[in-house]
Amino acid sequence: MLLNYIKIAWKVLLRHPFYTFITLFGISLTLTVLMVLTSFLDHLIGSHYPENKRDRMLYIMQMRQQDSSRTSNMSGPMSFKFLTDYAKSLKMPERVTITTFINSSNAYVGSQKIKLNTKFTDADFWQVTDFVFLEGKPYNEQNITNGDQVAVITDDLKKQYFENATEPVIGKDIEIENIHYRIIGVVRASPFTRPFTYADVFFPYTAPKSNYRAAGMRGGYVAMILGKDKADLPAIQEEFQSHIDRIPLPGIQDGFKYSILEVKSEPYLDNFLGPLLEGNSGLTTIFFGVIIFVLFMLMGLPAINLVNINVSRIMERASEIGIRKAFGAPVQTLVWQFIVENIFITLIGGIIALGLTTIVIQLINTSGMIAYADLTINLNVFLISLLVCLIFGLLSGVLPALRMSKLTIVEALKS
Amino acid sequence: MIHLQNIEKVYRTSTIETLALNNINLDIKKGEFVSIMGPSGCGKSTLLNVMGLLDEPSKGTVQLDGQPVMKYTDKELAKLRNQKIGFIFQSFHLINDLTVLDNVEIPLLYRATNGKPRQEYAKEALAKVGLSNRMKHFPKQLSGGQKQRVAIARAIVGNPHIILADEPTGNLDSAMGNEIMTILQELNNEGATIVMVTHDEQMAKRTHRLIRLFDGTQVV
């Protein structure tokens, strides 16, 4: 039966190549946009190099201090000391790393200036993240204790800075802001869309200009917490919160008296959405409302278009419907036939879209639009797209099928 | 086998009401070959559609094998059509996108018949109408007579007791018409009950009984 439906669906496709082209073009384009979007979202929030364990990680991105009337507030990254006292001291996690968020410096190759993104990190940074070392190794606790002026650079910086990019650079010197560092490792670069790990050069936090000794709670540091298991994350969050709750309030920071202190350890995405939506349920509703609306427009409009084409084309197939009904097809079976046919057509559109998406993703990855972009169509993206295909197929198949079911046999046969 | 009682069929539009069938009482017995004649628009096809459960009468009762079918659901009616009735139409009503074999298989699709036996039954039916060599052809590649033979194969593939034929020779020349009529007579000899709408007196003479309609009323 299913084979017969598919056979019919295929014949219907071949019957009017132009209509088929329009239909498949609409479906493929929509699904391509959705797949690229899903892939991009996955690139942004999924577990990817060098944060492959994001699903069992918590991020502490900022501290927020508010006065008692909640009229003014200060927010931003924290001091190294604060994170050492309150995050590094956590008992439950497997490991906690402290790193600066975003710093920039300059280096010179001859007279040419290279703008660099730098990070000061502890040694645990290399355990929590999954950087691939192409040469050398990361700095360790000993380097940090000794205050060694060492650096780990990315392969990309190596290409820019050294004349011969094929030669090993371990032990060589790199001068950044008039300070000489010895290169002890070269890693494969991380995209700039992963700000917790993106940098061209990594220094131990005891290197010059790291400001790690700064007093007070605010500074330039953030932390990443790696749980032993995904299920431990809520308990780790609780433990961290209990540490924060111990801080006496009110306090004073740079002359600002605050009575409310918020520091959260949250999964990756929540760190970015939290500050946007926090404490405002109306805003949350609008945010998700907009997302749903955009998704509806993306999926709904082509679906409506397809419904329209299908409904008008159904009259073309009225005779077939009449014949099938006359020879014993119940309405329910015919409705399923139409839905299966539509899902089949949508799946063909999905396959085309998969091909188009691969091309688009390849273009994005190689165009340099996003440095070190590594967009992929992974299992998640593929499954979501498949689900979208099925919803799309159902959406555009049900209405024509219901319209068809209302045709009487005699009317259908006369058509 | 088929019992119609006080059948009335009215077609209504917003401005006009047409009485297509008026007080029809009819009994078709098992094994009969009955023809229905009458001028165009007298209600012959409507009567056949009512008998075949393709159309609902406005009044009256239809009984099939002693069972009144007026309160049957769509699913029950579909099952009844599938198992007991085979249709042959003047304009063949084959699905052009399907091969001859696929067309003949259609009634079996809506039964629990698997692919392999389904094909075997369809091939047997095609052999019966002498079209074994056209199985892989598409309807557009066939002559009118061949198309009607495919339609007959489709009507008989599920071994229905009743065959309803609406002007089966209407679109064919006399030689092909005779050929089709011969096949129908053979089917009747094998036990099928056949009701046939026709305009052709010669064809009607080859059946057991003739019913004449005029303006929706049975006159003979």
Give a description of the structure.
The complex is a heterodimer of chains A (415) and B (220). Chain A folds into 2 domains: 2-48 and 283-414, no CATH class; 62-265, no CATH class. Chain A is built from 13 helices and 15 strands. Chain A has helices at residues 2-15, 17-45, 80-86, 125-128, 141-146, 155-161, 233-245, 268-277, 281-314, 318-326, 331-367, 379-405, 409-414, and strands at 57-60, 63-66, 73-76, 95-100, 103-109, 112-121, 133-136, 150-154, 173-176, 179-187, 201-204, 221-226, 251-253, 256-258, 260-263. In chain A, strands 5, 6, 7, 8, 9, 10 and 11 form a 7-stranded mixed beta sheet that branches. In chain A, a hairpin with a 2-residue loop joins strand 13 (251-253) and strand 14 (256-258). Chain B has 220 residues and is an alpha/beta fold. A 6-stranded mixed beta sheet of chain B has the order 6-7-8-3-9-10, sandwiched between helices. At the A-B interface, helix 1, helix 10, helix 11 and helix 13 of A face helix 2 and helix 3 of B.
Short overview:
The complex is a heterodimer of chains A (415) and B (220). With 415 residues, chain A is an alpha+beta fold.
